[in-house]
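Render this sequence as a predicted structure.
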Amino acid sequence: MKTRLVGNLLYGQSGGPTSVINSSSYGLFKQAFKHKDIIKEIFVMHYGFEGLLKEDLILIKNEPNLKKLINTPGAIFGSNRFKINFSKDTETLEKIYNVLKKI
């Protein structure tokens, strides 16, 4: 018997905004809404990992309005170039873990 993972989806943008970053997020959200049996809520990290660390998350609830993402320039949810040193930055990793447990 297969075990199904059920929970929330978390999305974040990082790096430079490209012409397709919002369209890509639209595609992800559109597919996620088709799987409400396993994806309970969709969250976006506002400004990537910086938003996650500040618990600045956007709850995506309204599928019909998401189509506007296809033609919206830039990175609508914000982006960053935050880097984590996985071998030294245990405080940041612990903070990320604790925020993820909340959502």
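Summary. The domain at 7-102 is CATH 3.40.50.450 (Rossmann fold). The chain has three helices and three strands.
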